[in-house]
Structure formats: structure tokens, C-alpha cells
Amino acid sequence: MKGVKPLILASIVAMSATVQANDLDKVIDKSSEINQSAAQSQTKIDKIADSMQGRLQQFKTLNKEIDGLTVYNAQLSKQLNNQISEMEAINLSMDQVSIIERQITPLMLRMVTGLEQFVALDVPFLKEERAKRIASLKDMMDRADINSSEKFRRLLEAYQVEVDYGRTIEAYTALLSVEGQEREVDFLRIGRLELIYLTRDGKNAGSWDQNTKSFVALPDSTISQISKGLRIARKQLAPDMLTLPVHAAE
């Protein structure tokens, strides 16, 4: 019996060691599982953290874009408001232009008539040229392919030409009835102050009398001065003093 007790005790110890070894293996296996699970959880956490960081960066970027778009939209709103104001001003101007155009056409017609009357009452120099200019203006007023601004510009040009006649000296050749015979003569125009003619043979001279609306003969003593004036007007002589008869205005 004494031999049996140690054997039983050894068996118990062996069984206990086996049980402890099995329990330890289970603990180790469980710990490995926990470690693996923890590693997987950490991996998930890292992924979530990276995702959150990316989304945070994306959020910041979107906020910057929103701020930029807010400023841009505010600027566009200002521009749009200005464009609306400009469109309203343009529409108002167009309405006013229509009114002005309706008013300016009668004005231009009166200006053409006034210019025609002025030329008819003026000293009769360059009669054909001035008559053609007025006829051209009348024809222009009836044309639909020329806008009002262009018509007005041409009309002002015609007025400017007439104004310039009053401060220039000019020599030109034309036909004139002298002593009942049509002859070619040289005309000397000194502004609107005097219109003098001299026959091409240099023997007859005369000047326009605005009171009688006719040419009156000039004495032979004026012929040399008239010839000199013609040469000055043609730039064949330098400007110089002239002694010529002048019909004083009443």
C-alpha cells in the first residue's frame, strides 16, 4: 500500500501538470486572438483616423472654395447690378435718341433751306459749286441709307465751308456777261467783302455791288492792283498790301 500512494500522487501531479499545460495553451491562444483582434482594431482605427484626417482636409479645402465663391458671387452681383443700371441708361438713351431724331430731321431741313436762302442772297461767287452742294444736301435728306448723324455731319461741313469763304482769298475762272457778251474772266474773291472780275485780256474790270445786285465797271487804274491780287490768291506772289475799291456796307 505504501508503494501505491506515491504512484497515485505522481499520477495526480502529472494530471495536474497536463491540465495546467492545457489551460496555459488556451490562455496563450486566447491572448494571441486578443492580440490579433487588437491589431485588427488598431488597423481599423488607423484607417478611420486617416479617413477623418482626409475628410478634415477636404472640409478645409471646401471651406476655402466656399469663401472664394462667396467673394466671387458678391463681385458678380455688383457687376450684374452695374450692367442692369447701364442697360436701363441705354434704354433711356435710346428712347431719347428716338425723340431727338424725330426733332432733328425738321431742324436739318430748316438748315438746308436756310443755307439755300443765304447763298441766294450772298455775293454770287462760285455759283455752280455752291448750287451743287445744296442740291446734294437736299438729295441726301431724302435718302434712307444715310443715318441722321451722318446727315447732320455733312450739313455742318457745308456750313463750315460757307464760314471759311468769309476769311479766305481766292482766284478762279468762270464765264460772265460783260457788256452784253459772255466772256471768260478771272474772279478775285476777298472773303465776302469783295468780288472782282478781270477779263482775260486785262482790259475790263468790275466788282459786285450788293445793293444793285449787279457788277459795276471799275476804272482802268484798278487793273494793276486786281492783277496783283489774282497772283497773290494763286500764291504766285507773297501776301502784300492791295489798294482796291470796296463797297461799304450800309
TrEMBL record:
Signal peptide feature range: 1-21
Signal among keywords: yes
Keyword annotations: Signal
Pfam families in UniProt: DUF3450
Protein name: DUF3450 domain-containing protein
Organism of derivation: Pseudoalteromonas haloplanktis (Alteromonas haloplanktis)
